[in-house]
Predict the 3D structure of the following.
Amino acid sequence: MTEENYYVLKEKAVPEVLLRVEKAKRLLESGKCLSASDAAEKAGISRSSFYKYKDEIFKYSKRRRGRRLTVIIRTLDEPGILSRILAIIADLGANILTIHQAVPVNGVAAITLSIDIPMKMDISVITERIEKTAGVSYAKILAEEPAQD
């Protein structure tokens, strides 16, 4: 697996097509659109642009320095992968808040985790360790939120 690089950009530096793809994703996730075709049309992009970039753009939400993460992970549908991921998180001293594992489709599973991490932990450590797990395609941070008191 080749190492991927991630960038955080101000919205004005992001190409318009990527912003529209992210908008289409939000329309689908909110239920305002029931199909990718409809969401792409309402966002003002082609369906092919939506499919080309939908797994490449994620809106990063950081209200203030916080310690709760939402991470999306794509894996092969193989026994034990989720268990290995959870062990990595535990070894890092982090705590799982929620787990959502979608029904695997065509041998691929999507997992979304909410994680409470130690205050001084570098968040990139989590995705780097998870991505090194056999059977994991990628791990991306969707949001970082302040810890709830």
User: Anything to note?
Assistant: Residues 11-53 form one domain. The first helix runs from residue 16 to 30. The mean pLDDT is 87. The beta strands are 61-62, 68-76, 95-101, 108-116, 136-145.
